[in-house]
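re: that chain from earlier
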Amino acid sequence: MDQVLRTAEAARRFGLGVVRNKVDRGMWQKPCRGVVVLHNGPLTREQEIAVALASAADGAALAGLTALAQDDFDGFTPELPQIVLPSGARRPSRRGLEVRWSTQLDDRDVHPLRTPRRTRPARSLVDAASWTQNERRARAIVVAGVQQRLTSTAHLRDALTRRGPCRHRALIVESILDAAGGIQSLPERDFAEVCDWAGLPRPSRQRRVRAPDGTYFLDASWEQLGMSAEVHGIPHLAVMRWSEDLTRATRS
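^ sequence. v structure.
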C-alpha cells in the first residue's frame, strides 16, 4: 500500500532527512524496525497486513488462514497473522506474527499477480490444516475450502505433493478424498461414518433432484433402496461451532 513503505523505499522517495523529520515530529510512525507508515493514526486491517509483509524479507507471503481471508474464505480466523518466509530468511521485525519458513514459494504456490502477496488457495488450505493442532479443525478447513469453491481437490493434491512432511498429512489426504466424493461438511463426514458402521452401501452425494418447486441437491441418497437423507443444514454455516458444541456435550 502507498502509505506503508520500507524505510529504505521511503528514503528513496522523500529523502532520509524528510523521513526522520516526519517520524520525529509524530507526523509519520514506525510500527517496527525498517517500516514507515505515512500517517500517525490507527492502522487499518489492510495496513497491518502491509506492515507484516514490509517487515519481512523479500519473497515473503501471507499464508494459511490469513491468505485465505484475502480470498474471502469464511468461517475461520487465525489468532495471529500467518506469514511464510523463504527458507533461511530472517524473522520479520514486526512482532505478533505466526511465522513459518518454506523452500517452496515459487509461482506454483504463490500467486504472482495478486496483492497483497499471498499463497494460492490450495497451498493456503494445506498449510492452514497442517498448522492447527486440532484434527477436526484441520479436516473442516480442507472440506470448507472446497465447499466454498476456493479451489479444487486436484489443486489440493498438487499442492500437497510439494508440501513435504507436515502434521495431519494422512488426515488431509483423507479430507481431500472426502471432498472429492461430495462431502461438504464435517456433519456429512460423520454421517458417512455412521453409514459405514450400519453396513449401508456407499450413498450418492449431492444428487440433483428436480421437483415442481425447483431443483435441489440431496446430501446422500440410495437410489437402489429408494432412500435419501439430508444432513442438518445449520452446521454447514458453522462447522467448528457444531464440532465444539458436540465435544462439550460429550464431556458433560
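The chain is about 45% helix and 15% strand.
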